[in-house]
Amino acid sequence: MKKFNSTNKKTISLFWHHATAYKRFLIPLIIFVPVTVIVMSFVQPYIMALVLQKISQKSYDAHNLWGSFGPYIIVYGIATFMSGVAGWRLNVWLIWNLELQMTRDLAKRTFDHLMNMSAGFHANRFAGSLVSQANKLTGAYIRIADATVFNLYTLFVAMIATIVILAPRVPLYAVTLITLSVIYIIGTVHFSKPVRDANTIEAQAQSDQTGYLADSITNVTAVKSFAAADYEKRRYWQVLSHTRNTGLASMRATMIRETYSSMITSTIGVSALVIAILGAGVFKANIATLFLIVSYTAQIGERLWEFQNVLRQFNRGLGDASDMVEILQIKPDIKDPEHPEPVKIIRGSIAVESMNFTHSENTEALFKSLSLRIKAGEKVGLVGRSGSGKTTLTKLMLRFSDIDSGKILIDGQDITKITQDDLRSHITYVPQEPMLFHRSLAENISYGASEVSRQEIEAIAKMAHAHEFIEKLPQGYETLVGERGVKLSGGQRQRVAIARAMIKNAPILLLDEATSALDSESEELIQDALWKLMEGRTAIVIAHRLSTVQKMDRILVMDEGKIVEEGSHKELIRAGGTYADLWNRQSGGFLDE
Ligand SMILES: Nc1ncnc2c1ncn2[C@@H]1O[C@H](COP(=O)(O)OP(=O)(O)O)[C@@H](O)[C@H]1O
Ligand SMILES: [Mg+2]
Fold first, then answer.
1. Which CATH superfamily is domain 350-586 in?
2. Residue ranges in the chain whose pLDDT is less than 70
3. CA angle, corner 260, sides to 257 and 261, nearest 5?
4. Assigned CATH for 6-329
5. DSSP category for residue 151
6. pTM (2 d.p.)
7. Comparing C-alpha atoms, which of 577, 323, 465, 559 is closest to residue 567?
8. Which of 337, 383, 533, 534 is most buried, judging by how many CB atoms fall within 10 Å of its CB?
9. Ligand 2 centre from 114 Cα, in Å?
């Protein structure tokens, strides 16, 4: 195939690379498929031809049919059963095994890769379409493997066998067959190019459609609350119509190719008859040869026709695989150092030194030469307007993105010098929107901590004031929380997240608005739990509600990526700046000290 683009080459080499890991299935397959094809499609007609020959020459004993034909029947019987029953079962067994191993390996490779990609990578992609691309990759492998083994390889074997058997007898036949087959293959490949392009566009449209569906369904609450269901339906209809149009384009291209291909196979069929007749007249071929010409030609005709299917499966398969194969080429943008240092984090002092950082899609830097020191064990409150950079600052400390210049040090150690796992296992992070798995509450609470007993889980849940509501659920700690925890209220989810944080024993604690969704009453309860959680740890607590950070050692006020004020609550109130303004507004003008 001439213009084979580089993604397709990568796909084939990926599949081949994984297949060669299972030589115990691959090698027998390469040997037994031709044996089966030859016995079934060539030995059988050959014996039949010999029998016909004998009959036409009347060189048999009419009173002893078994004596004349017995050996033929026995050999024919053995060939039929060996190939039809045993041969193909063995081949199917081999390829099925290979495919099961391979799809598992490919799925693992994809999953591992996606798990290693950074948060930034995932933020730019629909989870739904990644899921469908991952599934399509394994589906593509099965398509391509089946087509290669059962169609492409058998066609190749059949061509060789036909030529070897018939070329010495009727050279004209061999020449004609080869010529027409070459014309057939070149033409079919040529007309497959538009089909391939149309299939790629169709695959993209289907993937977008799946992504759109997943996006709308995940956000169905937003859709309903904006009364936008009709709008979504109209847009989805457009998406569906686009997919259909790409399907129609695929169909048109396919029809053109099939018209061409059927013209050539028909020509081959007619030529075979003409040559058989010429064979009788010119080459003095006997009836056995004529029978072989006709039956082998029918064989080849069928397999050539199937060659279109090979191309179709290859087109579909390569189209389906391309997205994920491209993704597999992307190197994770946050890399562990080649020679990671052993971790020195013990107490968790944090130093940010002249840090510059710009979000990848933004033009203006968010942090310009920001410096910040937090002592080990210090409890720092971080406040500021929405969009001022608080969340980004915590994510940079976790190395969810790399900074442009400057340094972030923890206990004096540059966080880029250790592995990401080492760094993150020393930090407990409660994000703004805590993520819960569709697993039991017990699993969600103990996530990331190994070997925690049910008693410990319950004790922690009590501290986080999550136990009260969990107990009331019909399945208690075994309740599945629904995809991303949607079955829980925001406050309940946060309490589960706080309990999860309490179980993890790390020297640094980053809480991003971890109590924002709690009502004042439960917040008061949790305050006390949070203080226990912070004990002996370095903590950065981002809070929208200032009462949450009032008692912190130090409060930082952030605005547009800069720290504009810092000090204790009292100092900041006395200074009468931004913080004091905010405080007066939040407590309704009454300072409750
Ligand atoms: N992944 C991102 N890509 C581009 N810009 C971002 C991204 N995340 C946040 N920002 C931008 O960075 C700024 C700071 O955001 P953030 O750190 O979330 O602020 P805060 O937590 O204080 O509300 C905002 O202007 C926001 O739009
Ligand atoms: Mg934020």
1. P-loop containing nucleotide triphosphate hydrolases (3.40.50.300)
2. 1-4, 483-486, 521, 587-593
3. 85
4. 1.20.1560.10
5. I
6. 0.77
7. 577
8. 383
9. 25
Q: pLDDT by residue (tens digit) across 170-197?
A: 888 889 998 999 999 999 999 988 988 8
Q: Enumerate residues with CB within 5 Å of ligand 2 (an ion).
A: 391
How many angstroms is it from 149 CA to the middle of ligand 1?
Answer: 52
What is the residue extent of each domain of the chain?
6-329, 350-586
Compute the residue count for the chain: 593
Domains 6-329 and 350-586 belong to one CATH topology = no
Q: Are 356 and 367 in contact (CB under 8 A)?
A: yes
For residue 393, the one-letter residue type is L
For residue 391, report the distance from its CA to the centre of ligand 1, in Å: 7
Can you give the pLDDT at residue 413? 95
At 428 the three-state DSSP class reads strand
Q: How are the residues of the chain apportioned to helix, strand and coil, as percentages rounded to the nearest 5? A: 65, 10, 25
Mapping DSSP onto H, E and C, the string for 307-332 reads: HHHHHHHHHHHHHHHHHHHHHHHCCC
Which residues are near ligand 1 (CB < 6 Å)?
Answer: 123, 359, 361-362, 366, 384, 386-392
CA neighbours closer than 13 Å in the CB half-sphere of residue 306: 18
